[in-house]
Amino acid sequence: MLKRLIQVSNNLKMKHKLLISYVLVVMVPVLIVGLAVTAYFRQQALDNAIEQTINNVDKIKSQTATLLRVPTDISNILMFNKDLEKIVNTRYESVMELTRAYLAYKDFEEYKRQYREVAGIRFYSTNPTLINNLEIIPVDQQTKDSYWYQKALTSTSIGWFYIPNKEDNPVHKLSLVRKVPFPEYRTEGVLMIGINQDELNELLRQEPFETLITDEQGYIVAAKNTELVGQTLNQLDFGIDLQNQAKGTLEADFQGEPSNIVIDELNPMYSINSLKVISVFATKNIVKDANKISLIGMSFMILVLVIALLLVYIISFLTSNRLLRLSRHLNKLALGDLNVTSRIDGNDEIGQLSRQFNYMVKSINDLMTQVVETSEQNTQLEIAQKEIKLKMMASQINPHFLFNALESIRMKAHIQGEAEIANIVRLLGKLMRKSLEIGSGKTTLKAELEMVRSYLEIQKFRYGDRLAFVIDIHPEVEKISIPPLIIQPLVENAIVHGLENKEGTVRVNISIYPMDEVIQVHVRDDGAGITPERLGEVMQFICGPEEQEKSRIGLRNVHQRLTLTYGEPHGLQIKSVYGEGTEVSFTLPAGGNQHV
Predict the structure, then answer these.
(1) Parallel, antiparallel, or unpaired: how do β-strands 210-214 and 187-195 relate?
(2) Which of 16, 42, 146, 490 could link 12 by a cystine bridge, Cβ 3.0 to 4.6 Å?
(3) In degrees rounded to 5, what are phi and psi of residue 343?
(4) Quick one: which of 108, 66, 65 has its CA closest to 194?
């Protein structure tokens, strides 16, 4: 059925759709509204009364917020009061010392004297050497278990709670409660500022209806009827649970009479909880002018119908005309006219379609241009690739000639009894052949270390007793695949820089072993080492985006290839102590997996 209705709608012209929409969306709802107009305006009269009550509640909220701003400002000052911090964190050796400290601290008394909104100030501390003087109070178990104390410890924000009577330490009024941390002493305490009950009650005394202010536990902290202060909402005869009601209005029987209840919330500055403002008024005699209001409502509905008919006609004409213009542009494009431009203005959907049509035509022209350019680029790329292949074939001639020359030198040296020279020439040829065979592929740790050993033997021949080396690799990791020329540049760096500014033998140690699901690779030397400043520059260079100094390109190249292959955690790590040596290390995934 729905599918058939959609099909019928799609077959209708736009003008007819708008007229049918007018009937369904305007006329039918207006008839329904006409039948319900009396009830509606009766409710409107009631809403006016509720609105007036809401305004009164808003006024109370504003006045209460102003009243609470004073203790809030005081608490902000005391949060950073050095005298308070010192007095509550000092470990007193005697009562006399504590008494002198109490007598010297007058801030609480001064604030109470200066501000009529403040009934008293207290500070609860965990310092066991303190004595309760009704202002600075050591925390007992009963206080620790109280709801307001536990709530205050959750945050340094302000909490507003009604504090019930306590036999040895009565409060019985709305109080600001706030945790005060002392980072220097690694301690904390709870500040309590009691609000003057007379000031709170004065805010509600002139209200026309019964008005209450409650905290989050349901305690009445202020009321027009002051006898209600200290009671809870559950003790009053509302018939519903007002404590868990959200802000808004509702109907209920209060003291046996149908009433409307307006509930709103007051969220003081920096507060972790809110206060509720509740106002109650009877609903009788509110809707006595309902008939007059109903007549006004009917006149209003007739006016709406006339205006709506005129608007439907105008919108129908304008919309149909613009759509026809867009349709003509599309027909031109379909016939191959790529220079067509739509000039339909407006920011509605039709205007957006017009602009998107122009974007589409421009994109088609751009794509055609790109196809031509791409074709030319592909042709040039094919030519360049052929040239590269020719150069690569030519470059293979020189290395083969060099290998043959090295082999001839090695055989000549061997025949003449120069075994050491023959061995070094053999190692050099092996090292060069391995380097050329690697290309851009992968190698194994075992093959990489063979190249490293050949390189070290050649350097050993060069430096003699000034160089010693040890290669230690765990047999389990020999077949792990790695990018080529990863370890050799680190060894080369250790020899070149390790021998600088150091007399005697420099030892190079290469160790590779598995640990915690990764393979640890360490290249250590006991050479000249690097100063901390220079080490910072080296690390900044090898991790940076640009190559700036040729002396560190090998390290930077290794670091970049490791991070691109395995991820950032597997990059180079360098530790060095100036005058003692340097260690360069990195890790490989145990399975040799590449970074994705």
Answers:
(1) unpaired
(2) 16
(3) -120, 40
(4) 108
Tokens of 295: 């007549």
Give CA–CA dist 312/21, Å, rounded.
Answer: 9
Q: 84-140 pLDDT, tens per residue?
A: 999 999 999 899 999 999 999 999 999 999 999 999 999 999 999 999 888 999 998
Closest CA to 483 of 428, 525, 443: 443
Q: 293: buried, middle or exposed (CB in 10 Å: 19+, 13-18, 0-12)?
A: middle
The C-alpha atoms of residue 89 and residue 124 are separated, in whole angstroms, by 12
Instruction: State how far the Cα of 249 lies from the Cα of 279, in Å rounded to an integer.
Output: 10
Distances from the Cα of 360 to the Cα of 363, 370, 431, angstroms:
5, 15, 60
Tell me the residue type at 261. I
Amino acid at 384: A
Report the candidate in 400, 404, 447, 407 with the shortest Cα–Cα distance to residue 427: 407
In single-letter form, the type of residue at position 400 comes to: H
Tell me which DSSP letter residue 196 carries.
Answer: P
- Going from the C-alpha of 339 to that of each of 210, 336, 362, 363, the distances in angstroms are 76, 9, 9, 12
Relative to beta strand 158-163, strand 136-138 is unpaired
CA distances (Å), origin 464, targets 37, 220, 456, 497: 109, 93, 11, 17
Angle at 438 between CA 434 and CA 441, to 5 degrees: 160
Whether 78 and 190 have beta carbons less than 8 Å apart is answered as no
CA–CA separation, 585 and 555 (whole Å): 11
- Check: CB of residue 519 under 8 Å from CB of residue 512: yes
Q: Does the reported pTM lie above 0.90? A: no
**Nearest-angstrom CA–CA distance, 460 and 343:** 81
Cα 155 from chain centroid (whole Å) = 21
| pLDDT tens per residue across span 298-343 | 777 778 877 877 787 777 777 777 777 777 777 777 777 777 777 7
Contact 91, 84 (CB under 8 A): no
